[in-house]
Amino acid sequence: MQTVFPKGFLWGGATAANQYEGAYNVDGKGLSVQDVTPQGGFGPITDGPTPDNMKLEGIDFYHRYKEDIALFAEMGFKTYRTSIAWTRIFPNGDETEPNEAGLQFYDDLFDELAKYGIEPLITLSHYETPLHLAREYDGWVNRKMIGFYENYVRTVFTRYKDKVKYWLTFNEINSIIHAPFMSGGIATPPDQLSKSDLYQACHHELVASALATKIGHEINPDFKIGCMVIAMPTYPLTSHPDDIIAVMEADRQNFFFSDVHVRGAYPGYMKRYFREHGIELNITPEDEEILKNTVDFVSFSYYMSSTETADPTKRAAGEGNILGGIHNPYLEASEWGWQIDPKGLRVILNTFWDRYQKPLFIVENGLGAVDQLVTGEDGQPTVNDDYRINYLNDHLVQVAEAIADGVDLMGYTTWGCIDLVSASTAELKKRYGFIYVDRHDDGSGTLNRYKKKSFNWYKEVIATNGASLVQK
Known about the structure:
GH_1_N_CS; 16 strands; Glyco_hydro_1; TIM Barrel; eight-stranded parallel barrel; glycosidase; Glyco_hydro_1_AS; 6-phospho-beta-glucosidase; two-stranded parallel sheet
């Protein structure tokens, strides 16, 4: 197809420290909430690290980052999104002085990326709240978290001000509503957590995010700082007006977070929601001033759309995706029940652009699947993952449609560009990557890396700036 992707488009891949670095107790690193959730972000919480927690070793990127970055460079990555593990810098989260070994690791990582001309895109907090802050302070429910986060971001912004240009404040910040421990370090069990405390935690994160934006622009005015949200367009099950209202209300639960990031104030619909649900928040005049520090761009993950109805009998017929809604009869689903909707990506890109008129960045999109390692024509192990190629091709064709619609899009990073541990299930068999990692859910494997069929496919997409995509 004739490409519409702009010159300088930031093609790349995305990962998170807690899902692939490993080395959970190396060089002074502290424990994070991930180290006590061996069954994933929605599973039970243990007292401490347990041998069945695949995230403790991950794929050992900590010791193999040079090998992996060389593979990313071979694919032609223009950017690489990852996160800084807060607990490598401040092991408990509330120290005053940082851990130099942790800072040095990311110095070395960013230098390696620079060697290949790959721009780092760095998430400051990607489901990696220090465990001490969760247990001692109940995570983001506590206002003190703003100060701890401020100390952390000042430290890394100052340290890497000449090495990193693109920053994200919180990964999928709106996920705190669905996964308060994984996303917000909230130790109070969900069934005991009041709506007031939950939305107070949301408020503290929003203030901290705006404060990070302010601090970052002061340290280096050339920084580009974005928010990061789960994007999930919502469709009505029918054209009944009540279903349309149900969609509007479901959408607002997600848009609330990006609305505050972009507009710098709470929207009226959330004030009504708080009133009608008896939610009382402590919002100071200083908080309101800080919130006015708005983001430079809006980034998001996109995996699925959702369907809503106001009819309780139809809702009872079955759940939809991981974050709720109901089943959409027009869509197929992945092996993990995530409904596949490429056109929904065009919808949400246009929705965000029309709503905000801010540059957008797709920083997660991909297909988790069970991959079968086989011997390729060259005698090397590989994976014939045409299903992944088809998924990504179809989504990127819709991205091209959105760009043709007039959407200002900075870049696209596929999720899990190298196999890593799933956040939602803590499995390794749920693979997303272009690169197969020989490690399995029972802990076995050599950790060797092998190129899948999709590796060369994505290399060609990047080399042609999207011209190799197939319109179906």
